[in-house]
Design goal:
- This protein has two domains: 117 residues, no CATH class; 192 residues, Rossmann fold (3-Layer(aba) Sandwich), CATH 3.40.50.
- The strands form six sheets. A five-stranded mixed beta sheet has the order 15-16-12-17-18, covered by helices on one side. Strands 4-8-9-10 form a four-stranded antiparallel beta sheet, with no helix packed on it. Strands 7-3-11 form a three-stranded mixed beta sheet, with no helix packed on it.
- The chain contains seven helices and 18 strands.
- The chain is α/β, with parallel strands linked by helices.
- The protein binds zinc ion (ZN) (2 copies).
- One zinc ion binds next to loops.
- The site of one zinc ion has 6 residues, from loops.
- This is G domain-containing protein.
- InterPro entries: P-loop_NTPase (IPR027417).
Length: 319
């Protein structure tokens, strides 16, 4: 026999007893003021889980904490000193705690100001990894960035395909693929993912208008992928200069850039003057040691008989 629980004609659980058992085994927090709503329902990306002792049963060791209402793990953001859950957020000092120990009783208990300050100091922020992506206009940076985010986050492409909600879509993109139909005819398919203001799909113009950072989390790391306006802008070298200034200004916001990915066309016979200009501009801004963290990437290779060795030979011969 199972007991089901309904609320507003919606089934909350088909096994009420089991749910209550789970609830009773959880350490919960309660916000003494109303939770502030965030923009949309997106959890603050920088918040990390907290492992605090119970303020009442202090010697019991460190515990995981969930929100008493939404039952999501509560997370702390070092930058704004707030706790986050699906209900919203509020300052950490507004929260009271109740662990699952039967000896604790039913009351929610707050930390003293001093102890809370000490505990907060011990919270480690997420490790941040910043990756700068530059490349020629139309090389497919946005699509490549989406692919990179999924590549970092999943072991195999099957893991993404198993559930379409798994797919990480950082940037709305649009691209064409050519597929062979069973009757042998080639068929052009347009793939479009999401919508945005930062992309300009007008033909001939660089799609990404200004530098923009896209973040996602994986394994306690915060990945920040910096998308930049395309090099070799059809509006000319002056536009390239403006774009490079924009890129430099943008990356100066970050303490460290951990990797620079340079996206190149696989069918390029030699480096264009505007690409050379932008690449040199970029290099003078960095310490010489940055060279070790520059990676050349070649998207869209499937349609070409692509050989990296041939390509690199050309770079070295001409530059
Ligand atoms: Zn909540
Ligand atoms: Zn307790």
């Amino acid at each position: 026999m199972h007991i089901s629980q309904y609320f507003n004609a919606q089934c909350i659980t088909t096994n009420y007893l089991q749910l209550q058992k789970t609830f009773n085994s959880q350490n919960t927090v309660l916000c003494e003021n109303n939770m502030m709503q965030q923009n949309g329902d997106e959890r603050n990306i920088k918040a990390v889980e907290i492992n605090f002792p119970c303020p009442k049963c202090f010697d019991d060791g460190l515990k995981e904490w969930v929100c008493e209402r939404c039952r999501q793990k509560i997370e702390y953001n070092i930058d704004d000193e707030k706790l986050y859950c699906d209900c919203g957020s509020n300052y950490i000092k507004e929260f009271a705690f109740k662990c699952s120990d039967p000896g604790h009783g039913n009351d929610y208990v707050k930390f003293s100001e001093n102890i809370l300050a000490e505990l907060v100091q011990g919270i480690k922020p997420l490790q941040e990894i910043n990756i700068l992506v530059i490349g020629e206009t139309g090389v497919g940076k946005s699509t490549w960035i989406n692919a990179l985010a999924n590549y970092i986050s999943y072991d195999s492409i099957q893991d993404v395909l198993n559930n379409e909600n798994n797919f990480i879509n950082l940037i709305p993109t649009q691209f064409e693929i050519t597929e062979k139909q069973p009757n042998g005819e080639l068929f052009q398919k347009s793939i479009k993912v999401g919508e945005s203001k930062n992309e300009n799909f007008t033909e001939g113009q660089s799609a990404t208008q200004t530098s923009k950072a896209y973040t996602f989390r994986h394994n306690k790391c915060l990945y920040r992928i910096i998308d930049t306006p395309g090099i070799g802008d059809s509006r000319g070298i002056e536009q390239d200069k403006t774009n490079m200034e924009n890129i430099m200004q943008f990356i100066s916001l970050y303490k460290e850039i951990h990797g620079i990915c340079v996206l190149m066309r696989p069918n390029e016979a030699r480096i264009t003057p505007s690409f050379e200009f932008c690449f040199k501009e970029l290099l003078v801004q960095f310490h010489r040691s940055a060279v070790e963290n520059i990676v050349f990437c070649f998207p869209q290779t499937s349609g070409f008989n692509f050989e990296v060795s041939f390509f690199l030979q050309n770079i070295f011969v001409h530059n």
